[in-house]
């Protein structure tokens, strides 16, 4: 048998070190402990944020809505038939939101912004969170046109003095 000398071993180790992928990231993984009525309770994800997206091992997505000491509660964005006790769940570290941009004009998308009209992918310009703080009262545009429902009993309660004179 041929023996490998120390220089060959060192060159192999150096090559492995140089080609080592530093971009490997640790993912926080948990397990489903209960599922029902479109809600899953997950144990093992300790650092989840409210409104964060999690992905189940079957590809179904969910959103964190309840954070407790040892578990989180997630609403499911789809049918829970493929999820059972023990199913793996991974954090995405991304808040729930939808892609936005001019490419969405005239397209049919689902609630998460994925195209469902069969016309291919959509190039998004940005990403907007689902839950966002509303602008302050001062920053808002004032109401210049009254809302009219067409129901006389309701509309008459909200008529301004100027509307009553005409």
Sheet with most strands: strand arrangement:
1-2-5-4-3-6
Mean pLDDT: 85
> Rg, please?
27 Å
Query: In percent, how much strand structure appears in the residues?
Result: 25-35%
Counting DSSP E segments of at least 2 residues, the number of strands comes to 8
**In one word, what is the shape?**
elongated
Query: Helices and strands: which structural class?
Result: alpha+beta
Which CATH first-tier class of the domain at 29-95 would you pick?
Answer: Mainly Beta
Main sheet?
Answer: 6 strands, antiparallel, barrel
User: Number of helix segments?
Assistant: 3
Q: Helix and strand succession?
A: HEEEEEEEEHH
Which features does this protein show?
166 residues, alpha+beta, Elongation Factor Tu (Ef-tu), domain 3, two-stranded antiparallel ribbon, 8 strands
Summarize the structure.
About 15% of the residues lie in helices and about 30% in strands.
Describe this structure in words.
With 166 residues, the protein is an alpha+beta fold. Among the domains are: 29-95, Elongation Factor Tu (Ef-tu), domain 3; 98-132, no CATH class. The chain has three helices and eight strands. The protein has helices at 6-18, 152-155, 161-165, and strands at 29-36, 39-43, 52-56, 61-67, 71-76, 88-95, 97-100, 126-129. The strands form two sheets. Strands 1-2-5-4-3-6 form a six-stranded antiparallel barrel. A hairpin with a 4-residue loop joins strand 3 and strand 4 (61-67). The longest helix is centred in the N-terminal third of the chain and has 13 residues, at 6-18. The chain is elongated and about 100 Å long. 11% of the residues are buried.
